[in-house]
Amino acid sequence: MQTLKLLYKEFITTFSRGKFFYAIFCSLLVSLLAIVQPIFLSQIIKQVEDFLKNWVFDKDYFLFIIIVWLVFSIFYILFSFYQRFYVADVYALKNYKRVFSDKIWDLLKMDYWVYLWKKPWSIYKNFDRWTWSQFQSVFFFLKDFSRNVLQLILILILLLFIDVRMTLISLSLLPVITIIWIYFNSRTINRQQELNKTYDKIFWNIWDFFSNFLLSKTLGLEKTFEKSWKDLTEEAYQTQYGISKSWAILSIYTTIIVDISNLLVIWFGSYFVINWSLEFYKLFLFYAYLNYVYFPLSFIFSSFERIQRIISEAKTYYKEFWDMKVEDLESWEFIEKIEWNIEFKNVVFWYTEEKNILN
User: Fold this and answer.
1) Rounded distance, CA 78 to CA 149, Å?
2) Which residue, among 183, 204, 159, 218, has the nearest Cα to 35 in the 3D structure?
């Protein structure tokens, strides 16, 4: 939670709280527009349904729905582009630019004694991953996560408003798929962490070889490093293969659950329609909105791994660099003339205690 607060603080530093709530409002509006779309078609179906009942067709109202639907669709397309690019993309890019500029300056001012206790490759890797987490935390949250969460909440409210019975039937398998998602997520989280560690080992070996390139070539270590890379790459492949297979199987379970839910909606909905306790256009809405419930929810559960990775990358950086001691460059003094009178006292250096190199 502390890491999320720090990520949020970085966003507020780049923009403001007002901009944050404006971005949430844009996501809410796009979600609302997305769930309104099927209502227009349901109104046309309702017109046909009324005609079959009463043999009366309101042509003017029908044309009105078509025109409003067309205008709505144009607005929806334009605003979706605005939210996707000018809010999600641009906000993430501006935040990334500001964070990168500020924090790279802090790294450049790192105290030398602090640097000596760190591995050069880890400085680069942790900084690179943290800046990635900064971009993803904004882009992913505004583009996908917030939209899906808000859309799910709005649809549930709308379905309850239309018909409580059909809502309960539509969501009857929700506990089942939730348990399945939690199970698969718990199985893949640890393997994903192992995969990240394996990638770290691969990049550490690459860094080790090229940072000591002359020594590696002199000792003929090419084949040794190649074998290490191949072994680690094979390990990473097998781990990723298992993770990808798990998520592929989960998608099959999700599709099966959605199909069964569709059958339940059609079966019970048809029964209610035949007994005149449900209008046909409402049955259409429930059938149309069912995918709006299960697949966004599936996306939210599958996003937990991505969210964990973002938090993990950011947490590593904050742990290593947040309270890092930096030099005050303004306090430096410019030495105009150097006397070069250097004297060594009590300096001892050796490889072994039996043989001093310098004394």
Assistant:
1) 22
2) 159
- DSSP string covering 39-62, please? HHHHHHHHHHHHHHHHS---HHHH
State pTM to two decimals: 0.71
Provide the angle, in degrees to the nearest 10, between the axes of the packed helices 146-162 and 280-321.
Answer: 150
Q: What are phi and psi of 326, to 5 degrees?
A: -120, 160
Q: Give the pLDDT means over successive 10-residue stretches in the chain (359 positions).
A: 81 88 92 87 82 80 89 94 93 89 82 78 77 85 85 86 87 84 77 76 78 80 83 86 82 83 86 85 81 74 73 77 73 68 74 61
Residues 290, 261: contact at Cβ < 8 Å? yes
Q: Which two tokens stand for residue 7?
A: 């990520």
**Sign (positive/negative) of CA torsion 18, 22, 23, 28?**
positive
Tell me the β-bridge partners of 110.
326
For 170, the token pair is: 């539509």
